[in-house]
Amino acid sequence: YFYSLDTTKAGGYIPDADLKAQIDVLNADYAGSGFQFYLSQTVRTLNSNWFSNVGPDSTLQTTMKTTLRQGKAATLNFYTVGFQATVDDGLLGYATFPSDYAGNPKDDGVVILFSSLPNGSKAPFNLGRTATHEIGHWLGLYHTFQGGCSGSGDGVSDTPPEASYATGCPTGRDTCSGGGVDPIHNYMDYTDDSCMTELTAGQISRITSYWSTYRNADYVPPSGSS
Prior knowledge:
Strand order of the largest sheet: 2-1-3-5-4
Number of helices: 5
Order of helices and strands: EHEHHEEEHH
Radius of gyration: 17 Å
Largest sheet: 5 strands, mixed
């Protein structure tokens, strides 16, 4: 389910063509993973307070999700807002993790900056990869720089350790000795959208496992899908 807040493009309105483009990006980015995304319904809501002030630590996000959320654990609820509150200025998105669902089902989903969708104004983050990244969290992935150079990192063996997040597209960056160059092209780093091109086999294995554990019981294939 896709939720667009406000009714002008400057104020958050997402045209149907841009939403289709975002779903196309998701299906291209997750191709080969076994995951596909289908639009069940678009809900357009005029609420400038939610659009401007919803954020990860706001009571408004709880109100918004409690009011709008549909479906169960396997249903992705995708909200677009403006993150205009000072505390959230610069935020591109946030998400819940699969293991969070049982304790707070209404909170489940991803919240994305509206201008980060394809054809949005948030260059260099306007090719739809913010959604790819946040849905990665929703499916169970951590950042590639999780834990820095030590410990278990992101819990995936084939993503090289990374001391800190990367920005831009710094080819050849290597912040941790051993293990290979930083995974700057991975969807779970912080590089520009045009730099992001991949998930690893280990990440795909992880999201498949997490789906089976936390979300698959509620999955109903869309009509007409195979």
